[in-house]
Specification:
The chain has 102 residues and is mainly α. The chain is built from four helices and no strands. The protein starts with a helix and ends with a helix.
């Protein structure tokens, strides 16, 4: 059986890669993918801790399912916004959204 520390280290790496990707990217699609990495790190923690702390119960799995549903809805809305920004401005960088404010 794989120890829980492995899952914690994996989720920590995914979380910090996602945070770095969100801060370092100027492309909206890349930023969206970085947010998905952060959400996947949370899901790994939910499932791992549920498996090791409460093996007979399903709370961690249900929370993960809820996070996946919210992430899918968030992705659909974000993709729609990105497509509209691309149609309006011709590129999908953060700077183009700042230009829409003016």
């Amino acid at each position: 059986m794989i120890p829980v520390e492995f899952y914690v280290v994996l989720s920590t790496l995914l979380f910090f890669i996602g945070v770095y990707g969100f801060i370092a990217r100027k492309n909206l699609i890349g930023m969206l993918m970085a947010i998905e990495l952060v959400l996947n790190a949370v899901n790994i923690n939910f499932v791992a801790f549920n498996r090791y702390l409460f093996p007979g119960q399903l709370e961690g799995y249900l929370y993960s399912l809820f996070v996946i549903v919210v992430a899918a809805a968030e992705t659909a809305v974000a993709i729609a916004i990105i497509i509209n920004v691309y149609r309006k401005m011709g590129n999908e960088t953060v700077d183009s959204i700042k230009e829409l404010k003016n």
